[in-house]
Please model this.
Amino acid sequence: MPRAKAGIIRRLQTPTSALPTPITPGDPLTEPLSARPLATPLRPSACPGLLRIVPALDGGICRIKLPGGVLSADQAFAVAAAAERFAGGVIEATNRGNLQIRGIGASHDALIATLLNAGLGPKNPASDDVRNLMLSPCAGVDALQLFDARPLAERILHTLESHPRFHELSPKFALSLDAGEGLAMLEHPHDLWLSALRVEGEVLLGFGLAGCPGDDSPIAAVTLDAGLDLVIGVLELFLEHARPEQTRMRHLLQEMPVAQFLDCLGERLSVPLKIDQKITTWRRSPIQANAHVGLYPLARPGLTCVGGVVPLGRLDPSTLRRVAQLSLDIGDGELAMTPWQSLMLRNVPAERSAVALDGLQAAGLLCDADQALSQMIACTGSAACGKGQADTKADALQLAAYLQKHGVSQPVHLSGCDRSCAAAHVAPITLLAVSTSRYNLYIRHADQPGFGELRGRDLTIEAVGALLTADSRSYTDD
Ligand code: SF4
Model:
């Protein structure tokens, strides 16, 4: 690792020239970032943020949190320019629908300024970390949604950003809001998850703690108009009871049973919690596998979404520019980043969807789930992470080529160590690196913790490919 890059960062002050205008003195939402010292966070994190660039073997990493995963074409151009001018030109799509720039050198101030000028920063510096609310990439336009999640999401994000108390939350503390869309990430565990459900003709907001709607039923529900109060109540209760070292909801629930949490929550809210069997036994309909790849019809007749997977989560500035231009030419001028490390052009006229699909493919995205690489995820690996036991991305390319040759496409996660940075959920197939280009193979199993059932030890990529090819169906039935 170059010494100059290894020394990069800690907490960065934001250049005044990068501030948005107009500025209202004393207004915490518009006061200059540099005018307010960054307080020491109660629950500090080593994760990257927009204002906290963290070092890696290939330089600094800056994470850009996108509201609902959405950025405008102009913002995409700004990200591409920043990555090209001030970093190594590597842009990553994260598994929370955000973007990262890698390989940042000494010009980190200029990079941050570019991003802030594009409107990609937080409303104030202390709130960057807490902007963790996951939505469907098709929120507001999905044919199956029970309500438009965007207005509530906007109010939740505004509350997270503007209430200093919530800045005490860990940067990993995360929420999800699922309005019943056909395209939604249901497997990622969240500290608080919200899911729309219909009970006796009324749409309610069910919720759960330290879990996900893909695995769990709601513990209770509220009416839709009480959604924001519910979120505030849950977060306040967490902060009142959790000690600083208890960064996540699951930590608190080890000491405070869910029933007790619910009792306290019920006393705090001005609206009743609905807890009956129809709610606590409700299960979310699963989503169709790989619905984010290729064409996805929308609620409005004649409009569609067109999605492409970013190969192994990495794209270069020219690719980002091309897809941003496509969104201007054919879509609605925005890109929706997804938790599947893919992106979507939304509101594309159906008669132009083939052109959009061709455009994404020509830009280098994978628009067909039969392409083996489209279902593969890999962490940074040893190429840029000191903990990596193997070059996971290079090995993923090799495995994808093997599977493609044999007509197999499987959801595989290659992890350089057991921290599992590339996947917030347990993938159907996990390859855990044990040394250079050698992996243990796990198959997800409902009754087994961790990555699942160990099916092979110390395997080469060829051996993994042969196993997955031999009986491809049995590996994903769990
Ligand atoms: S999973 Fe391990 S090797 Fe991969 S990026 Fe994370 S810490 Fe590094």
Summary: The chain has a mean pLDDT of 90.
